[in-house]
Amino acid sequence: MEASIQIEVRSTEIDVLGHVNNAKYLEYLEWGREDWYNKIGLPYHLFEEMGIGTVTVNININYRKEAKLGQKLTITTKPLRRGRSSFVLKQEIHNEANELVADAEVVSCTMSLKERKSVPLPEALAKHFPASK
């Protein structure tokens, strides 16, 4: 399942060059992932009830085009692939002209909240990823 949210660039997100600061894109992507979890029916409290947390372990982001104050951006998140305890989400940020502003692959893993070690993906999460080849 693919999920999208729209945001508007605010003045506090702009750097001295007049465009969105690179670190803000990480926040945008996080908002997109949280929205994806909610839309697939796995908000944080359900993970917590399972004794599981998701941890971001790697983000590879490509900055493609400037985003500026007042622009409306769409953050799209979709499942890409999964392993035993890890999974990859593909995220893209587009501007109002549907130009690609940034894209990223975000690797996360599931971990036991008690033991703080990786655990296999719960089926409630794994079922949202394409079957392994």
From TrEMBL:
According to UniProt, the name of this protein is: Thioesterase-3
| Organism of provenance | Thermoflavimicrobium dichotomicum
Query: Would you indicate the residue range of the signal peptide?
Result: none
- Does Transport show up as a keyword for this record? no
* Similarity section: Belongs to the 4-hydroxybenzoyl-CoA thioesterase family.
A Pfam short name = 4HBT_2
Which InterPro entries does the entry mention?
A: 4-hydroxybenzoyl-CoA_TE, HotDog_dom_sf, YbgC/YbaW
> What are the GO MF terms of this UniProt record?
fatty acyl-CoA hydrolase activity
Q: Which PANTHER family match?
A: 4-HYDROXYBENZOYL-COA THIOESTERASE FAMILY MEMBER, NOVEL THIOESTERASE SUPERFAMILY DOMAIN AND SAPOSIN A-TYPE DOMAIN CONTAINING PROTEIN (0610012H03RIK)
**Keyword presence, Hydrolase:** yes
Keywords per UniProt? Hydrolase
